[in-house]
Design brief:
The protein is α+β, with helices and mostly antiparallel strands and 502 residues long. Helix content is 68%, strand content 9%. The protein is built from 11 helices and 7 strands.
Length: 502
Amino acid sequence: MEKKRFRWKDFPLAVKVLCQVGMIALILFVTNLLMYWQVNKTMQRLDSIYASNVNLTELAESLESVQTGMYNYLTVKTSDSLESYYRNEEQYKKLLEQLNDRPMDNPVKLLEKNIRKMSETYLEYTAETVLAKRGRNVEKYKTSYAEALQMYRYLNSCISDLNVLQFKNNSSSYRTLQNSIRYIEVGSLVMLVLMMGVCILMLFYMVRGVVAPLTGLAATANLVGQANFNVKMPQTDAQDEVGVVTRAFNTMVSSLEEYMKLTKENMEKEQAMVERELLMEAHLKEAQLKYLQSQINPHFLFNSLNAGAQLAMMEDAEKTCIFVERMAEFFRYNVKKGSEDATLREEVEAVENYIYILNVRFAGDIHYTTDVDESVLECRVPSMILQPIVENAVNHGIRNIEWEGSIHLLIQQEGTDIRISVIDNGKGIAKERIGQILSGELRTEENPGDSTGIGMHNVISRLELYYKQKNLLTIKSPGENQGTEVTITIPYRETEETCIGY
């Protein structure tokens, strides 16, 4: 399996912009961070230069406070003055800890060591003076005070000398750092300018990489808008948005001219046909309905009339009258409804008349039952859709069987539909034959002399034309000699007057 490669040009535009802007921000941040670190480091060194002078000044002030505190206690001898002395003494000891106490060749460090040792001796003299004063030993505290005062003056002189020496050293370091600061300022300025140039250059290439293809695409689209279909964008294998749009645009341009030609041809053809279609559409459906509804086989009429004539000769006039009336009603329905729709009630009556006529002709061999929902009988349906199904059940189902044949008519409402089923207990229909009937491949009547001439295909076609739907009629047969069930499922809509089809 080939390893997937990650290419920059395949990333989405949003990712590219975020990455490049983030890189620029990172460069600027690192640059500023380096400049800040360098300046901060220099300032720390600059602060440390004069920190020693500040510390020596603080040490001299603390030494003076110790001397003053001791003198105040000797003159006034109060607890407050004594407390002040001890506080100043403690502060002075802390400051002494910052001085060097190791032998070194550096004059400054050597002088710091001497000051620290002399200060320890001075503090011993001050402590002896205070103790002698508290013990009322006048001679002792006078001697100790004189020695402490002498040491105090000598310490002041040494601290002053150390301060001057430190200042000289610090001045030299300060000039060096001052020059360094100038170099840092220049270097920082140069680095900042360079980084800004790099960022501007990155932004330029970033914007050009995004805008250039879009600008070219806009220019090419403008040419295509002027009916110039010979222009295309350069091919690219990039998987970002610009690459996808570029390939889609090239594909569109390639097919646009051909599409325009085909559209023009189709419009010319459609314009030539639209008037003809509008003119013939209504007449075609009307002609189809009338043609399908007019296929009444005259042989059936003649045979039925012959049967009536024979019955008139063999029986009395009353039965002959009933038979003739039934025949008249059946023929009248066929003639009247041949080009109209009818109610379900009229369809059921036509089936009853048809069964009566057949039972007269064949000595009552057909056992006919019904299960009808009276509430749906006023719904209008295409005429002559039930009688052909019942006729088919007689001729191809129960005729010439060895057991008593029966036909059951079921009409009931199921939700928004009406289910009409004709069920017989006859020979049954093979699955292959059912498929041929529903597809219209099988249309020829096997016994034209005993048929009205309206076959199953006729019924299926008229149902589809009337309701503008398909698969309204289904045929089921469990197997040979197990009967057949033909079911019509039609939509049911109730209006103020009646129930009509869609």
